[in-house]
């Protein structure tokens, strides 16, 4: 924290509020075509992130890092992190690359259908009106999976044309375009983005060998949205978007590829003071390829170790009703369904460039749930209370894992029994507000079904191997929080105390060290680790989240800080983890941001981020040090339509450690990166 305080002096540029603790999150839902978010979320810690200008190297996952307490499994972003490591969570409920926070786009779940990681590059080509971060689980209307909270992305349809183009360090290019127009009684919008760069060498200086090189990336996406009236107070919305993501890990044979197509159709009827309802259907298609390399200890040669292809599909639907009661809509009732289907196809045991063995593993899952939520009172003054409940029926169809040698007989032909069960979740909350001061309290229960990836797919990271576990049980969370908020003049203050217990927490548990042959993974080399996904007894997490905001003339200064004390409760084969901090969870996280209000021709921003030290592995043998980074930018609007901008990432050039292997090889996150470009809108 001393390093964070010392860096405050570097904030010399004027900036606007990055986010706002509020119950008025409706302001960002412009053009999203949704019924307005339930005011019941105001009984929990809520933040609204605005000013999400795309382009010039900016990325959604990095903007989320500005809100302390949001933790992504890797410190590196979607240009260099392996796609399967991009899970997101809140409140210290980490230790697993699968997301424990529910990410939605206009109400549609966004986690990968197979592995529940998040393809952040898919949102770079979407014009977003804002992001609502609701901390804490149990909101029945959000659906299962919102253990740690919900990160709601809300799209916004352009009215006119907005474009940007920028050149950056290491031959980086970044171009965006959003165009929208009226179409009869409706509206049409097209959004696109293309970015590329030669990348940087991920391995830390001093540990590199002949195999290490820069890791290039190339990413792009295109989407079209239609919105038109369908009678009084009704509208139909359709969305179709696709994206392509190519990354490299800086070593031969480590290229990854993600191609995705999403489509949704929504009918909304939301008259003021009358019964409101919506119907939603959506489909997600993902095709993911990735290569993995075996690198010698001196890092002077590499060979292919595994090639993986993961096709997956997500389907879902939702119907929600908000009946008119006393001229308002305090009640939400509905049903939703989500199905995931996927498999992993892997070639491994290479001799030279030829694989010797093949594996196919996968399955499907279904969740059908019903929910009801009542919110009563005035969110602006007096008492507001909310209560919600949800009941889900889940099914895991028979899974499978088949392995065989090319040209030989099967090695294994395993089929895993189908399973099903019931899970309940819910939330109660209370908020009292008077003269700008609020007190709030909430208690909640949530749950998450194991992903197909966790159940059926073994994997390797370098020489370390982790086995799947088809017997994993659903995770279950009990939690609560109390908080206070104050707003007066240009000042806003917020503080929240929370405590959570995540039972059956799924984690990668280290069981042995090579050399040797181990169940589910085969041979593990000397010095490498053998792990298995297992249900821990629990993860207990408690802490505090604080934010402060102050208007200073034409600028706003905002600070956030989160302290998390998370501990593993484990026994049996995982007893060695008992009392340890979960992997990838730091005690401290903080940010300090200054941003102009956009009222003049000159503008800019500066954001300091601090992330505390954390363990890379479950046993705490590999430790990632803390890091302090500075991002900043300047803009000059030459006319009403044209402006020029310059921005920089990690201007300190901080060597941010993002991962460390069992052999001690450190991977770093983005080094100093500079961008200059132009932005046009008319």
From TrEMBL:
Record keywords, A-Z: Cell outer membrane, Membrane, Receptor, Signal, TonB box, Transmembrane, Transmembrane beta strand, Transport
Membrane topology recorded in Swiss-Prot or TrEMBL: Multi-pass membrane protein
GO CC aspect terms: cell outer membrane
Domain of life: Bacteria
A GO biological-process term: siderophore transmembrane transport
Keyword Protease: no
Major location (coarse): membrane
Residues forming coiled coils: none
Cell compartments where the protein resides: Cell outer membrane
Similarity remark: Belongs to the TonB-dependent receptor family.
Listed name of the protein: TonB-dependent receptor
Taxonomic placement: Bacteria, Pseudomonadati, Pseudomonadota, Alphaproteobacteria, Sphingomonadales
């Amino acid at each position: 924290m001393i390093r964070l305080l010392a860096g405050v002096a570097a904030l010399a540029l004027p900036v606007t509020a990055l986010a706002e603790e509020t119950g008025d999150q409706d302001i960002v839902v412009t053009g999203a075509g949704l019924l307005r978010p339930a005011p019941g979320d105001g009984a929990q810690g809520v933040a609204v992130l605005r000013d999400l200008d795309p382009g010039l190297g900016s990325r959604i996952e990095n903007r989320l890092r500005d809100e302390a307490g949001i933790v992504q499994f890797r410190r590196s972003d979607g240009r260099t992190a392996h796609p399967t490591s991009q899970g997101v969570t809140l409140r210290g409920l980490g230790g697993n690359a699968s997301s424990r926070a529910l990410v939605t786009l206009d109400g549609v779940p966004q986690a990968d259908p197979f592995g529940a990681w998040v393809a952040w590059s898919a949102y770079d080509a979407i014009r977003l009106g804002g992001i609502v971060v609701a901390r804490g689980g149990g909101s029945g209307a959000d659906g299962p999976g919102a253990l740690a909270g919900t990160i709601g992305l809300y799209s916004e349809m352009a009215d006119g044309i907005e474009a940007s183009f920028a050149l950056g360090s290491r031959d980086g290019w970044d171009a965006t375009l959003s165009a929208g127009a009226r179409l009869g009684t409706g509206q049409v919008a097209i959004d696109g983005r293309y970015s590329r760069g030669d990348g940087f060498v991920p391995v830390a200086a001093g540990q590199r060998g002949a195999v290490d090189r820069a890791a290039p990336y190339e990413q792009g996406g295109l989407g079209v949205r239609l919105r038109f009236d369908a009678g009084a107070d009704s509208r139909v919305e359709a969305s179709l978007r696709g994206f392509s993501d190519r990354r490299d890990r800086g070593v031969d044979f480590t290229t990854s590829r993600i191609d995705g197509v999403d489509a949704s159709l929504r009918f909304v009827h939301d008259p003021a003071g009358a019964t409101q309802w919506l119907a939603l259907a959506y489909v997600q298609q993902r095709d993911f390829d990735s290569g993995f390399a075996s690198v010698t200890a001196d890092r002077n040669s590499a060979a292919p170790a595994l090639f993986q292809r993961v096709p997956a599909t997500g389907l879902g639907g939702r119907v929600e009703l908000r009946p008119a009661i006393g001229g308002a809509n305090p009640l939400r009732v509905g049903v939703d369904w989500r199905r995931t289907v996927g498999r992993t196809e892997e070639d491994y045991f290479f001799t030279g460039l030829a694989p010797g063995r093949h594996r196919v593993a996968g399955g499907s899952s279904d969740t059908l749930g019903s929910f009801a939520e009542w919110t009563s009172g005035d969110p602006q003054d007096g008492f507001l209370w909310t209560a919600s409940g949800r009941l889900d029926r889940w099914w895991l169809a028979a899974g499978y894992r088949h392995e065989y040698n090319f040209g030989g007989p099967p090695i294994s032909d395993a089929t895993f029994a189908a399973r099903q069960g019931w899970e309940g979740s819910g939330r109660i909350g209370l908020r009292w507000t008077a003269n700008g001061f609020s007190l709030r309290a909430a208690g909640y229960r949530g749950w998450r079904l194991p992903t197909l990836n966790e159940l059926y797919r073994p994997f390797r990271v370098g020489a370390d191997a982790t086995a799947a576990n088809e017997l994993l049980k659903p995770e279950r969370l009990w939690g609560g929080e109390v908080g206070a908020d104050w707003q007066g003049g240009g000042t806003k203050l917020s503080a929240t105390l929370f405590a959570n217990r995540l039972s059956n927490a799924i984690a990668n548990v280290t069981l042995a060290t090579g050399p040797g042959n181990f169940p589910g993974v085969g041979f593990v080399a000397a010095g490498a680790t053998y792990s298995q996904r297992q249900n821990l007894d629990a993860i207990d997490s408690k802490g505090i989240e604080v934010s402060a905001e102050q208007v200073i003339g034409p600028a706003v200064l905002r600070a956030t800080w989160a302290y998390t004390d998370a501990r593993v409760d484990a026994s049996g084969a995982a007893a060695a983890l008992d009392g340890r901090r979960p992997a990838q969870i730091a005690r401290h996280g903080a940010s300090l941001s200054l941003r102009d209000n956009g009222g003049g021709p000159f503008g800019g921003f500066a954001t300091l981020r601090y992330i505390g030290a954390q363990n890379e592995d479950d046993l705490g043998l590999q430790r990632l040090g803390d890091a302090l980074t500075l991002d900043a930018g300047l803009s000059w609007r030459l006319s009403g339509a044209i402006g020029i901008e310059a921005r920089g990432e990690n201007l300190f050039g901080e060597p941010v450690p993002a991962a460390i292997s069992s052999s001690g090889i450190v991977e770093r996150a983005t080094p100093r990166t500079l961008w200059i470009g132009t932005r046009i809108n008319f």
